Amino acid sequence: MNPQERTRIIQALESREARLPCPRCGNSNFSLIDGYFNHSFQPQISNNVIIGGPSIPSIAVVCNRCGFLSHHAVGVLGILPEQSQPNNEQA
Q1: Which of 1, 36, 59, 91 is the most buried (most CB within 10 A)?
Q2: Nearest-CA neighbor of 33 among 53, 54, 66, 9?
Q3: pLDDT per residue of the chain (91 residues) written in tens, 0 to 9
């Protein structure tokens, strides 16, 4: 993740007032994980795993004291690249 991406993500979180302390330990110091997560999801619970199905790209912020991770969907933050956004997304 380059410095411009980091700045854009931090600004997106701050503009949405994502500044509350850690829900586990109350610490107010966090770090942005240097990379992206891609959470896949299944249309139903079954013994089969669908590879290459729908997913939610996200970033993670980690509490500097206890390690609690909070994930934030990049589409909702408005930082999903244009070619990756579905035509009907309104985030």
Answers
A1: 59
A2: 9
A3: 899 999 999 999 999 999 899 999 999 999 999 999 998 888 778 777 778 888 899 999 999 999 999 999 999 999 987 765 454 444 4
Write down how long the chain is: 91
- Taking the C-alpha atoms of residue 80 and residue 85, their distance in angstroms, rounded to an integer, is 7
Angstrom distance (rounded) from CA 10 to CA 25: 22
What is this structure's pTM?
Answer: 0.78
Q: Are 89 and 83 in contact (CB under 8 A)?
A: no
Q: Tell me the C-alpha distance between 81 and 5, whole Å.
A: 11
Distance (Å, whole) CA 81 – CA 77: 11
